[in-house]
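User: Second chain of the day. Same drill as before.
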Amino acid sequence: MFKLSAEATLDGYVTVENKFIIDYLPYADGDYVRVYLYALFLSAHGDGADDLASLARRLGLDAATADAAVEYWSELGLMSRLGDDITFFPIRDARPKIKKYDVDKYSEFNRMAQSFLRGRQMPPREFDEYYALMEKLNIEWQALVHVIRYCVDLKGDNVSCPYILTVARNLAQDGYRTDAEISERLEEYGVYYNDLRELLGVLSGGSKRPDHESVQTYKKWRKAYRYDPALIAHVAREHIKRGGMATLDYKLTQYHDAGFVTAEQIDGYETERKALYKLAKSVNKALGVYYENTDPEIAAYIKPWLDMGFEPNALVAIAEYCMRAGLKTLGDLDAVVRGDKFLAAARLTEKQVAEFIDAEKRFDGKIEKLMAKLGLIGAVTGNHRAYYAIWSENRGMPDEVIDYAATLAAGKANPFAYMNKILLDWHGKGITTVDGAKATGAYAASGDAAPANATVNERYTAEQLNSLFIDLTEDD
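Assistant: Same format as last time:
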């Protein structure tokens, strides 16, 4: 765990002293500084269960980097490690581990390094950082001189010590440590420099100097993905609106994983992708819902529906149909799309869907008059249409008989269900006239109770609505 030394605890607070910012921070690797600051925070505010592994996870670092950071600060005397316990010391009491370097061994390095860093005078601590890196990673001093020159070319005369150390450390970790190896690798990076500089101009709309990280990324696109400069520039111009190198890297990696190797394949994919996003938004608008991220919807619903053969505008029309029926979720819409009304009936085009919906509305005028008699307020729904189709078409009941049944159902809790039972009873007895219905004497008193099982949900699920027509015909 992390803890304060007794001396630091007596100070009563955790602080980052100016001396740390001036004398230590400028020369330390950025990840090392993050480890120091976060560990310092945990030493005062942690719950006692924090360790180096959890710290690394919180900072998004690998365990080796976190361990190296502790070793670095320990060598400077700002902390010490004993087993799993890491203790901080006040900077005023820091006792760095004294490590002497052979001045004669690095005299030529000192001279050449300073000659390239013309914008500033290198302090002794910076030289110590370079010596430590060379000896720890076994980097030849001539190789580090090449790294310094390369970094100056990228960043200018005032390039920082941490940046130079990071570039050198990355090269060493990739196995490049000798002057010949690093010179060859940096020369290879230089080949990509001009192309990348033009590319950054496309991305940013102006001139921008590439850095080492962007050169490495560009090399990946060229060497690993085998994308030529023209294709990379095409993607940047046509398909990247914001996000710069990070977005371009995401796109090119996506294309590479999908096996796209030509501009035509990429353009076709992007055209389809944009069309899918546009369709998803239109469907959602018609359905009355909003999703900020439509990717899951496209994968789970939009793409499968299109693969079934539905036209895009047909899907929007079905979504509007569901909205009017009170079905407002993608799950409801999916059930209707796949149900008997559309997929099973091969109604896949916008025209076929429109004809079906128009046909369903053919009784709407009569249903509205019925609803007025029944005292119902609201729009005609799919439930109402399904009931009326059964009465008028399947059972062949005349309009006047249906109207008379409505006068008997007025005021009931579920009038359409009540009417359905009445009309089913009359149909079974062969009654097709109002006089015949009145002659039965049944249901004539307004206070009669509804027949058994005469309740119905006014709001149906998609599955119930989709099969309502079939369910009602089973009464015959």
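The chain has a mean pLDDT of 83.

User: Great, on to the next one.
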